[in-house]
Structure formats: C-alpha cells, structure tokens
Amino acid sequence: MEKVDTGDVSNQIEEESKELIILDIPEAEDLKILLSEPALWPELCIYRVPRKLRAINPAAYTPQLISIGPFHRKNKALMPMEKQKLRYLAEFCKRIGINWTELANQIKEWELSIRHCYEETFDDVSSDKFVSMILLDSVFIVELFLRREEKYNFVRKQMHGNFKDDFILGKSTREFGVLGDLILVENQLPYFVLDDLYEFSIGNSNEEGYPSFFDLVRFNFEDYLSPPEIQEDKNLKCTCDCFSCLYCFWITRCFSCQRDGDQSAEKEDEEGSLDQEKPLNFTDLVRKSRSFRHPVSKNNKSVMKLYSATMLQGAGVKFKASKEAWPIDIKFERGELKMPRFLADDNTERVIRNLMAFEQCHYPNEPLICDYIWILDFLINTEKDVDVLVRKGIILNLLGDDKTVANLVNNLGLEITASGSCFYDLSEGLNNHYENPWCRTVAIMRSVYFNNLWRGTGTIAAIVLLFFTFTQSVYSISQIFS
C-alpha cells in the first residue's frame, strides 16, 4: 500500500477551513433574528413562477405593458407606464380631495403585512421606496377601474368625460393589454391593500354613487370572471331523427353498461361563492370564478390513464357541453360526458398558464385548474379529438385549425406536478365504459344500423322479417313431426 503523507492531509484541511471562513454566514444576532421568523409567512400569496414552468413559455408570465408590485419593477421595457402612474395618482387625489401623503401613511401601516405577502423579502428596497411603489401601483389600479367603469357607464360618463385623450383608455389595445397584465401571477398586489385603500379613499370623498370595490373589480374583469356567451350553431344538422333516437334509447337502456354509481347521488357543491370569501389577489380571484364548484372524488389519486375523445366516442360515450362554461364541473352519467366549454383563443394560454402556476405554488393539494387541463390533455391527442369536441360544442376554436388547439392543450400540462386529482373517479368510470365489450357492441349497432331513420327502419323490418321467418320455420318443422 502507498503511504499517505500526514503533512499533505493537514495542509488540505487547512485550505478547506480557509474556504469556510470566506462563506457569508450572518452574525450571531442576525442569525437569531432569521431563525425566529417562519420559513413561510401565513400571508404569503404572491410568488415567482417556478423556473421549470417559466422555461416552457417565458412570455406567458411576463407583463407586456405595466409592472405591478416588486417582481418586475426593474424591467426597462415597462418604464414608460410609470409616468401614467404619476398622472393617475394626481387625478385620483383630485377626485377624492385627499393629499397623497394621507394615502401613503395608510400603506405605511400595512407595509410589513404587504412584504410578507411576497415570496421574496426585497431587503434591497427601502421602506420609503417600497411604500411609494405600492402607493403608485394600487392607486393606478383603482383609478383605472373607476375610469373604465365611467367610460362604459352612461350616467358617470356624463360626470367625468369620455376619456378619448387618456393614454390607456384612448386605445383599446393598451386598455385590454393592461387588464391582461393585471392577472399575471407575478404582477400582483395583495387584494386587501386595494380593497382597504379604496374604502378609505371613497369613504373620505365628497362624491357619492361609487360602487363597492368588489363590484368595480367584477365589472373590469368581466371577460375573465364570466364565461363567454356562445351561440348555438343552428346550421348544424342533427345526426339522429326522432325514430333513430328512439332506437338508440331502447338499445342503450337494454344493453348499456354505464352505472349511475355514486356520482348520480352526489349533489353539486353550491356553497362556494366569490362573494363569501375575499380573494388573495387578482389571479386568485380569476381562479375562484372558474373552480369554486367542482366534483369531489372519493379517491384522491392521480389520473394515469384516460382514453382519447375519439376512442371514447367509438365506445358509445356521448359528449355534451354544459350550459355554463364555468365553474369547472365535469360529470359522466348514463354514458354521457358533460363538460364545460373551453375557449381557445390568443389569450387562452397566457391565462391558463398563470392560473396553473398559481395553483402549483399556493394550492398544491387542490389544483383544480391543473386537474381540468390534465383531463382535457388526456382527451385530446390529435386534431381528430379536437374535431369531436368542437362538433359537440365543448371547444370553441378561435385559433384556426384543430392541430393548433391540440398542441396548445398538450403543452399546457408540461412540468405540472399532481399528487392527486378530483377527477379520478370520473376517469375510472370512463375507462370502465370503454373497456366493457357491451358498450362497444352497442356503439357499433347504433352507428352501423341505427344512425338514421331509413337504415334504422330497414334494420327493424329485417329483424321482424327474420323473426316471422324463424317462427314459420319452427311451425313447419313441428307439423312434419306431429
């Protein structure tokens, strides 16, 4: 064996010790303060998007026109809007008759609670700069919302003008672009700051007739909080007439393998409401509007397998669009899968990605939007699956070809972590339906022999003729041996 030089070992230990001394370890007193703070403050509700999610599509999480809060305050591309914040601050103080220092004092009282709402501490931002930033951002949002409400409200429009010269409201692209930035997960202020500042300001204003802050927010975010009205296409021809529907009904009732199960006994959870609980921020508000009533699975397991829409349709599953697009509520009963409508347009990916990122950070054990997209991802593998869902009214495709929608849905689920799904029981019901031979037999009979009036009538006539022929044959044979 080779002999180890003890002198070399000592020198190596000494060098490593020097490297440890270089480490930036806090002083004992500072370390004591650090350890006395919780790892996560209970107020925490505003996060940076995890790197693995941001890497898929960075633009989906980055504001394009305006920075709100501390995360994007150094983005030079957003600096031009800082002048508009100052202009709105002056206009708001003039509106309510309060000096801006009174507003700043209110925010100063909430500073520590506001800082605790963010995932990062921002120790490099002084107290005065932090308060100034929150003041400008919060007043900007409130003034913008008031101006938009006045712009589209005839009575208040008479009082405050038409805003044609407004830098933001004068151009619809800027107006709706700013609104889109206000729901991004990294571009948030705590909801309580906006709500309390609004109540403080309006309460000290001489002018009456202002709506509540929640009504004001709901008006401005109407496109994000209320599902789009979708007109039924009256030009679509029905694939079944009355007689074939009767045939389908008779066969389904006789041979269908789908059980009512526990889902038919479950009642819709209608206790959730946007008005009962204040949201944490605007991202949370949009999420609540789409998911506060949802199906509950007794088995909180991850969905690992679900057949595509085309395959399920081939096994006799009927797809039906819910009358309401939101909240998310998917049901499978008596061979019918009822789903909310999914609007696929230029803004869909941005909105859904931010809602999913927020769930991954704040609601890891209740990722309702993620669960819904996960199910949609299983149902859609190719453009043929999209076509099935479009024809049934479940997907409203404003992106053009079906392949674009398929790629959109398939990419939304990338890097999403799921420990369980509220739709596990639903997926099991669909899989059992597909894998049952009777269901596929019934589906083939319906599609081949009962898909229209004439073929269905011919099938019934053939069956009746076969029956009488068989009866006559039996009768004839019985006569021979009698």
TrEMBL record:
Taxonomic lineage from the root: Eukaryota, Viridiplantae, Streptophyta, Embryophyta, Tracheophyta
Protein name, UniProt field: Uncharacterized protein
InterPro entries, alphabetized: DUF247_pln
Transmembrane intervals: 453-475
Pfam families referenced in this protein's UniProt entry, alphabetically: DUF247
Organism: Hevea brasiliensis
Keywords: Membrane, Transmembrane, Transmembrane helix
Domain of life: Eukaryota
